[in-house]
Automatic annotation (TrEMBL), chains A, B:
Protein's recorded name: Redox-sensing transcriptional repressor Rex
Signal peptide: none
Keyword annotations of the record: Cytoplasm, DNA-binding, NAD, Repressor, Transcription, Transcription regulation
Family to which the UniProt record says this protein belongs: Belongs to the transcriptional regulatory Rex family.
Feature: DNA-binding region: 23-62
Cellular localization per UniProt: Cytoplasm
SUPFAM superfamilies: NAD(P)-binding Rossmann-fold domains, Winged helix' DNA-binding domain
Source species: Nocardioides salarius
A family per Pfam: CoA_binding
Tagged with keyword Repressor: yes
NCBIfam families: PRK05472.1-3, PRK05472.2-1, PRK05472.2-2, PRK05472.2-3, PRK05472.2-4, PRK05472.2-5
Amino acid sequence: MTERTPSEASRDIPEATVARLPVYLRALTALSEAGTATCSSEHLATAAGVNSAMLRKDLSHLGSYGTRGVGYDVEYLRYQIAREIGVTQDWPVVIVGIGNLGHALANFSGFRSRGFRVVALLDADPRRHQEVVAGVDVRPFSDLEAIVHEHGVAIGVISTPAPAAQDVADHMVAAGIRSILNFAPTVLAVPPGVDVRKVDLSIELQILAYHEQRKALGAAAVERPVDGALEGRPA
Amino acid sequence: MTERTPSEASRDIPEATVARLPVYLRALTALSEAGTATCSSEHLATAAGVNSAMLRKDLSHLGSYGTRGVGYDVEYLRYQIAREIGVTQDWPVVIVGIGNLGHALANFSGFRSRGFRVVALLDADPRRHQEVVAGVDVRPFSDLEAIVHEHGVAIGVISTPAPAAQDVADHMVAAGIRSILNFAPTVLAVPPGVDVRKVDLSIELQILAYHEQRKALGAAAVERPVDGALEGRPA
DNA sequence: TAGATTGTTAATCGATTAACAATC
DNA sequence: TAGATTGTTAATCGATTAACAATC
């Protein structure tokens, strides 16, 4: 059951590598469109914003797709990475929560071009059910299960307000979805076997703020109040 | 200049910890709003979706803000984390690129409530300069430098199409911005000392697709073509 | 053959986790 | 005092980087 052909050496790719493969894929697509036939690890690494040792290490998890002394065939490597990620196939996606962000996501061209097809837009608010966004009409949230089964949806996107997100996730899981991209600023609880990735705008800004604050401190090391001077411990 | 008071033990917090502090902050805010005065590391960790050992380790980098045998004072810990991140102060932010995503960002309430204030919306397209979005009017991109200086903007958000992003980043850096949140699907080159965080929707979906594909393989291990059977190496 | 560049090894670094002594 | 829970230590795990032998 879990046995594996030894020839298929490429299983169990580290998570950090998986997260970079789409970046390499994009860089290779750009090189391909620019008419470049071959590239070195150095060249590709620069385009992807990583160092070449890391790139080669990452690619070594997939297999041996380069040629020593020469480099990588752009088209060939691009296909191999696309296949490894799974974007050579079509992925039906459903988006739940068609507010400002949901509109932006539905209209985002980068999905379609990478094998993701938005098959349905759902919203709990009946006033939105008149709307057509990006050529797809907005349907009631209660249609979720039917749509998931009809289109074989494996990936769900949540762009509702935070209070609704857990309920949406529960229904997605119940309908058979096992991969969720969550834009709502809340921690989702899901059963084992379900993957959740979160995109959290205000967390990203807070991380930047932390570093920005430290930069400012370096510049004027005085302004910060001395440890504990302002706020006492509670009793 | 770089000397440091030994009492301020909390410098040099690991990057992984910094990325989780905003999650703890959000959980503490929820606890606070629910009227909870005290919580254990176990309780807070569950709310934040991490394990309690990691939470305590993370908090230990900030200082010793708990009470053995008792737990943490919710309000006190919340303030300490907020101060550490820097969200007790106000951060003026500028957003460049007011398409669908820019609209969604400008309207996002989570910014304002966490100390981020959108002081300007900029777009290169003159047709957008009539618009008022979320109470702020859209101004020409060429106003960037003046606005940055006027408001002391330290954080810039890029929500333009990919081809425009590098040029926007260059202008931001030239204007003095040293923290950038990039939503454009492209790798930005910036000088040392400038922080860039990227949010890339299609990369997130591709990471989910990779894992989804592997789940499907586990279920039906046969369907995948045998290694190299379909595609030959290029000459 | 000589030069170039991959794929891999080994060293280093950082992050996570479990366990427990300190202490409220 | 006894029970609870923190803060820290040490072990483990995973990711990054440099260096170089393999080889085109």
